[in-house]
Design goal:
With 251 residues, the chain is an alpha+beta fold. Helices cover 51% and strands 15% of the residues. A hairpin with a 2-residue loop joins β3 and β4. The longest helix is centred in the middle third of the chain and has 19 residues. The relative contact order is 0.13.
């Protein structure tokens, strides 16, 4: 538990010390693709140190409107517009992400975010801070997936389900959190919610679980939290198996 406490503590402390305007990627873009984008973008930035010419601008626009253009060419156009640090390029990206081609949809989201941050950095004296996770976020809130198991792997009773729904709906909004989905299964609960970056996520979850357990100790205080992806049924079964043993891993 101490190791987990330290992780949550470091997470919260890292944001509490940041002074500037947060930019959180709202879309769910896989982390490996985000890393690929940034490496690619940096290479283009180094290869194109000069201002974007009118011919280049028109060429990139044309690439994005041509459905026959190869994926690599569209990626190049998107990233080139993003690093140009020009308002007109931002407008092109902003319009494109409204109806992006499926093969570069996530790439377009990343390009728009990079362009926005570059422009705001130039126009504002405030420090711009970029935050991205696999699950994305909204405003200055990050999206988290939480898995909470039933105590002793015992199926929830009807009144316990009602308690979970009531207490989560009451307590989390008080912490300025937004519940996007709360799913109560037989022996576990899945929560997908948005939480402000400076709010103590461990304390918020501990408190709401404790409130539920006032009506019977039916929720485990050892929960799984991630902002990378939602867990699959197979992954959940493995967690239950690890905690309760082979005989109780059925969902």
């Amino acid at each position: 538990m101490k190791e987990k406490d330290d992780v949550f503590g470091r997470f919260r402390e890292s944001f509490s010390k940041m002074d500037g305007h947060f930019h959180i990627l709202e879309q769910r873009v896989p982390v490996d693709l985000q890393m690929e984008y940034f490496k690619y973008s940096e290479k283009i930035r180094q290869d194109q140190p000069n201002n974007m010419t009118e011919e280049e601008y028109e060429s990139y626009k044309q690439s994005l409107s041509d459905k026959e253009i190869a994926t690599d060419q569209k990626k190049y156009a998107l990233s080139s517009l993003a690093v140009s640090n020009e308002v007109r390029a931002y407008r092109v990206l902003e319009q494109y992400v409204q109806h992006p081609d499926p093969d570069v949809m996530n790439w377009a989201y990343m390009a728009l975010m990079e362009s926005r941050i570059s422009l705001e950095s130039e126009l504002s004296e405030e420090k711009q801070i970029y935050i991205s996770t696999g699950l994305g976020g909204k405003g200055e809130k990050l999206r988290f997936y939480v898995l909470i198991l039933a105590t002793e792997n015992t199926p929830f009773q009807d009144y316990q389900r009602q308690v979970i729904e009531r207490e989560f709906a009451y307590y989390l909004p008080k912490e300025n959190c937004e519940i996007e989905r709360l799913t109560i299964h037989d022996v576990y609960v899945e929560l997908l919610f948005l939480i402000p970056v400076r709010v103590d996520i461990q304390s918020a979850l501990n408190n709401v679980i404790s409130e539920c357990n006032q009506y019977g100790n039916f929720l485990s205080m050892a929960f799984t939290v991630t902002n990378v992806k939602e867990l699959s049924e197979t992954e959940i079964a493995e967690i239950i198996k690890k905690k309760y043993g082979d005989d109780q891993a059925t969902l």
